[in-house]
Fold this sequence. Notes:
Helix content of chain A is about 55%, strand content about 20%. By secondary structure, chain A is of the alpha+beta class. The radius of gyration of chain A is 49 Å and the shape is rod-shaped. Chain B has a 5-stranded parallel β-sheet, sandwiched between helices. Chain B has a 4-stranded antiparallel β-sheet with strand order 8-9-10-11, with helices on one face. With about 220 residues, chain B is an alpha/beta fold. Chain B has 2 domains: about 1-120, Rossmann fold, CATH 3.40.50; about 150-220, Arc Repressor Mutant, subunit A (Orthogonal Bundle). In chain B, about 40% of the residues are buried. At the A-B interface, helix 3, helix 4, helix 6 and helix 7 of A face helix 1, helix 7 and helix 8 of B.
Amino acid sequence: MKLFTKYNRINIAITILTFVVGSIAFYFVLHYVLVRQLDETLRGEQQEVVDYVNAHDQLPVIQNTKHQWITVAAAPETITKPKARSILSYNKTEDEKEFIRQLAFSVTVEQQVYLITVNKSETETEDLLQLIILVTIGMIGFILLSNYFINRKLITRLWQPFYNTIDNIKDYQLAIQQPLQLTKEPINEINLLNDSLNKMTQRIHQDYHALRSFTENASHEMQTPLAVIRSKVEALLQDMEGKEKNIQQLLAIEDATQKLSKLHQSLLLLTKLENRQFIPNEMINLSAIISTKLEERQELITAKQLQVHLHCEDTVLPFHQHLAEILVSNLLNNVIRYTPAGGEVYIDLSKEGLSVQNTAANGALNENKVFQRFYKEEQSAENTGLGLAIIKEICTIAGFTISYQYINNKHDFSIQFKH
Amino acid sequence: MKLLVIEDEASLNQSIVDFLSAAGYLCESVFTYREAIQKIDYHSYDCIILDIMLPGGSGLELLRYLKQDAKTDGVIIISAKGALEDKIEGLQIGADDYLTKPFHLSELSVRIAAIIRRKKFNGQSIVSIGNIKIDTIGKTVNVQEQPVELTQKEFQLLLFLVINKNRILSKNAIAQHLWGDDMDFPANYDFIYSHIKNLRKKMMAAGAEDCIRSIYGEGYKLQVL
């Protein structure tokens, strides 16, 4: 739920409640005041009658009107405390039932007690009350409606800087070499938010850079000792002619050096991939890359007597040149390495995806683990165990999905270009 | 041929100097940025072997300094930084080549030879050994003035062996020279053997001496006296 909607709901509920309670109270207060006014009039009438009786010792001639009339009747006893009350009665002149306010009192004329009731119709009061209530309800409705629209407009405008900030954060990428730079806004709260975000990204950025340069430097620093080892091995090799066993040992050292170096390069690449240091925004001809990389490996394929069935549709898609090359290289390296000699390889590229299949040496791979780092089905010396992890990471960056299947004694790695 | 090796790791520097001296170059070595600047200011070299991370400054700065002074020394960068953008940056500033550590010294030697050939002979360059003449620009090989048909890989292989003559080259070094390092090679490197075999056959048929020796099947060596 939007903050505004939530606020509006509460606001409107409370406003309506307040207005309802207020209106009811208002009604009763108004009713009380009007009835008191009515009673005042009735008492005035009573006073006039009493004054007349006291002065003349006879009943006055009574002039009745449509809304006010007086009845006189003989009564057995006097009323000491006259009180006004409302009753429902029939009004002859109006020909309808209506509420009337009635004040009964007694006067004594020539030793005869008379009961006199002063009646006044409440219709006028009711009408007035109705009008007032109607106007009030109309006002309330108008206030609510205008409030709603003003709030909507105003709040949308007030929140605009907030949404700007959100948009900025959404587009923000750590790999871009700049911390977030949110502008100053005229509203303190938004300013506070922006400032905090600016500072936070600044810190994250510093940490990120520190980590990145650490990883890179650590990796680089290891390459130099490896270069030393390799150069010494090469030098030693020259003195070993005639000593076959020594040569083999030296070459084992050299191979280990090679492997270590590759491992570092792969880890470094994985770190960079995870840090999103590559942005797939070039149009890449994948079919061309596949042909090139396949061509480069022709000797290896021939040496293993592999049958390659290539079916390539011309496919150009947004990707990253370097990543595309690594992706294809790794896929091909895997296939060439793991297909048994004389086996078959199927490479199928279409606009929808790329599928690489090869005849398997021994059974299915564990599809849950196959993309994990350092996962190896068999312990092999040349393999770093990072190839598929790198492939998977590249696919994630490019927005592709990769899956592994085992069908008809074949490993099948399929990349889907679109979700 | 005079070379300057700028590399702060002393033992690597020593290895490079030893190897290149044995290949017939005259080598000087320095270990820091300052020493390098001094050498560059007063001498000129056929090729400078330049490390990027140096005490006292960056190798790239040194390279900019060289190019500002319009020096014609060839430069090959040897760096632990193997990322594509590092390579591009180095080459854009004006390096002739870029080699990522750890490299084979034999590879370094071939690259240096190529740079010197480009610089010295203005693209006219023949490498000859015995009765074999290799035209590195036209990519042709003559034995006793008769052309020999070689595939591209065989040509590269021959040149690699010739430049590193009298040295044992591991199959790993040969494979990396011919195919680069984004491939991974099977442990036995069998496919190299067939290339060597074909090359030998073709060269001998053309009348060249059989001077390629196999070292227990672990490496190869082009032997000339």
